[in-house]
Amino acid sequence: MDLQSLTLLVEILDAGNLSAAARRLKMTRANVSYHLNQLERSVGAQLIRRTTRRAEPTEIGLRLYQHGVAIQGELLAARESVTALGEGLQGRVRLSVPSGYGQLVMADWLIDFKRQYPGIVLDVVFENRIEDLLRDEVDIAIRVIPEPPQNLVAREMGPVRYVACATRAYAERHPLPVQLDALRATPVVTAAVIGRQLRISAYQGETRREVILEPTLISENFLFLRQAILAGLGVGLVPDYVVQEDVRRGDVVTTLDDWRLSIFGTQMFMLYMPNRQHTRAIRTFIDFILARVRPEEAEEAQSQR
């Protein structure tokens, strides 16, 4: 058994199957299968249970996988230590952020991070779907979801509050809905949903309601949705950060403020793969962003050092 064999095992289990591992390793599937068979022969035990969809580790395979991940982490740390001698922090972070939150809230944070750590390459993807982090080789994803996937580490970044809103001019021409059911007869501007219908959840104390709507304008691009709301095309159902400056200036007014509205979820999460030895660049980025969304925790941690 050698490091290359352990690396192969880690890649197969991380990728989920032999075909995906072959693509990541730029090898043929037959070649990956051959080397896996050779490793299992040298160990004298089956390491992976192959199914039509996924590769699952046996007990011995899981133990070897954990050793392989740890060894890879130590090697990576060693390379970073050598690289860092006489230089600033370097590395690469591939980040996936929601289009609206990424552009309207996180953009300034990302620019500040780059100014502070110019040697770190930031590769930022603006994407709203919950993609496979391994498949897309994403280190960190920021998402609004009801519950984080169990196979990922989830760090809470705070609540997300949706608002029903429209321009002041629109509100003067059209009565804004003051009851949830009135939204059904309202032209709604909101984010993408599957199919034509939108199921919105609303909470008021212990009361929970669901209203099914058919929006008049749907898009994944929250900057475009903001433009549509400002153009007076209807009542927007968007996170408050999309229109907070417009509300502050008085250009946009809100309604149904007694209800806590939710479309995709009420919590923002930072997601990343477990059992990974993160690079110093990734660890630094995680700490930097969490300090922005949890400043009180960052100050407490700083005072304890």
UniProtKB/TrEMBL annotation:
Q: This chain belongs to which protein, by name?
A: DNA-binding transcriptional LysR family regulator
Q: Which Pfam families match?
A: HTH_1, LysR_substrate
A GO molecular-function term, please? sequence-specific DNA binding
Q: What's any GO biological process attached to this entry?
A: DNA-templated transcription
Keywords from the UniProt entry: DNA-binding, Transcription, Transcription regulation
Q: Which SUPFAM superfamilies does the UniProt record give? A: Periplasmic binding protein-like II, Winged helix' DNA-binding domain
**Annotated ranges, domain HTH lysR-type:** 1-58
Tell me its family. Belongs to the LysR transcriptional regulatory family.
- PANTHER family for this protein: HTH-TYPE TRANSCRIPTIONAL ACTIVATOR TTDR-RELATED, HTH-TYPE TRANSCRIPTIONAL REGULATOR
Q: Which residues form the signal peptide?
A: none
| Keyword DNA-binding listed | yes
Check the record and name the CDD domains matching this protein: PBP2_CrgA_like
PROSITE patterns cross-referenced by the UniProt entry? HTH_LYSR (PS50931)
Q: Which InterPro entries match?
A: LysR-type_TF_proteobact-type (IPR058163), LysR_HTH_N (IPR000847), LysR_subst-bd (IPR005119), WH-like_DNA-bd_sf (IPR036388), WH_DNA-bd_sf (IPR036390)
Q: Does the keyword Transcription apply?
A: yes
